[in-house]
Design a protein that fits this description.
Blueprint (H helix, E strand, L loop, with lengths): L4 E7 L12 E7 L7 E10 L3 H4 L19 E9 L9 E5 L5 E5 L4 E3 L14 H14 L6 E4 L5 H12 L3 E6 L2 H9 L5 E4 L5 H8 L4 E6 L3 H8 L2 E9 L18 H7 L3 E4 L14 H13 L7 E5 L4 H9 L6 E5 L3
Parallel strand pairs: 8-9, 8-11, 9-10, 11-12, 12-13, 14-15
Antiparallel strand pairs: 1-2, 3-4, 3-6, 3-15, 4-5, 5-7
Helix pairs in contact: 2-3, 2-8
Length: 340
């Protein structure tokens, strides 16, 4: 590969079942030249999320990714050249830059970031992950001290933060995860009050034991069987924040649930709301994006939130890292280090 070339991953074909390496193709391409209003960015880190898989299924809050296109994904990058007066060489930015080592991006779609260490916190606790947990939980669930909060995918990027915020707010916190080891870790390391291994085959029964007084707030990252089990155990005036549906992203859709939603919503007077985190950036009942970052930083500095990051080294490992995330390998936020 010459000095004016870069590597990039394209989506070779839309997956028909579970995501595999064969769905991606590693290519070389010329390093782009930025046009008017654009900046040339060198990718330092790539953010991985279950939503990357959902984008292959069709349009969501962004356009669907088609076969032959560069794989989409969030990045943290360094500006090398700028044709936008708002950016200069050396700036750090976050953007949907895709799975490539360099990108020419319109300055208008880039968010300038402060120089902090570790830089990865800009993708985890102070990035979309932390903000999703902050706004999705506090704005929609409106937790009160003493209430029971259930968090699915609790060992994942967003779930670990939601659970810790719920503890800060004085709630009893129960998480679901995919192994006994992860459940023990949630309780013994992150301070959850209880955790349920959803792979044991008795989700409803296990949640009933873990939440004997019912569930007041449910932060849903999974949909499917766990959502159905939670719905039937919600207390009157319970609140459900729908963040994701990872159970339906990769492979065959789940066979279970949720059933009985309309009747339960009425009888139990439940609030069930989906969201996109950017909905709240300009302002909400719990503040703006800046307010959220300041509060998260205060909690981190005080040791009230432990930031969990699962960092994989090497651009060539991005597909395997996403496949592993979908299989539940990670604890906390999965990030690929391309260039430190």
């Amino acid at each position: 590969m010459s000095s004016n070339e870069m590597r990039q991953f394209v989506l070779a074909e839309i997956p028909q079942g579970k995501l595999t390496n064969s769905n991606f193709k590693l290519e070389t391409a010329p390093i782009p030249t930025p046009g008017d209003g654009e900046i040339l960015v060198k990718t330092r880190y790539i953010s991985l999320d279950a939503a990357n898989r959902a984008w292959m299924q069709g349009a969501t809050y962004r356009d669907a990714i088609e076969g032959g296109q560069v794989m989409a994904g969030g990045i943290l990058g360094e500006v090398l050249e700028s044709n936008d007066p708002n950016f200069q060489a050396g700036d750090l930015i976050s953007a949907d830059g895709g799975w490539r080592e360099y990108a020419a991006l319109p300055g208008s779609v880039c968010q300038k970031q402060p120089h902090i260490e570790p830089k990865t916190h800009l993708l985890s606790i102070y990035g979309v992950t932390g903000l999703t947990a902050y706004f999705g939980f506090l704005e929609i669930c409106q937790p009160k001290a003493g209430e029971t909060v259930l968090v699915s995918a609790a060992a994942g990027a967003v779930g670990t933060i939601v659970g810790q915020i719920a503890k800060i707010k004085g709630c009893r916190v129960v998480g679901t995860a995919g192994s006994d080891e992860k459940c023990d870790w949630l309780v013994n390391e992150l301070g959850f009050d209880a955790a349920v291994n959803y792979r044991n085959g008795s989700v409803f029964k296990d949640l009933k034991e873990a939440c004997p007084n019912g569930i007041d707030c449910y932060f849903d990252n999974t949909g499917g069987e766990i959502l159905e089990a939670a719905l039937f155990q919600m207390n009157i005036y319970g609140r459900i924040s729908c963040c994701g549906a990872v159970s339906s992203y990769d492979g065959a859709p789940p066979q279970a649930g949720p059933r009985g939603v309309p009747g339960l919503l009425v009888v139990k007077r439940l609030t069930m709301r989906g969201f996109i985190v950017s909905d709240f950036f300009a302002g909400s009942s719990v503040g703006t994006r800046t307010d959220a970052i300041n509060q998260l930083k205060e909690w981190v500095d005080a040791g009230k939130i432990h930031v969990l990051e699962d960092i994989v080294d090497g651009f060539e490992n991005v597909p395997d890292a996403l496949i592993g995330l979908l299989a539940g390998e990670n604890r906390g936020k999965r990030i690929v280090r391309v260039n430190d």
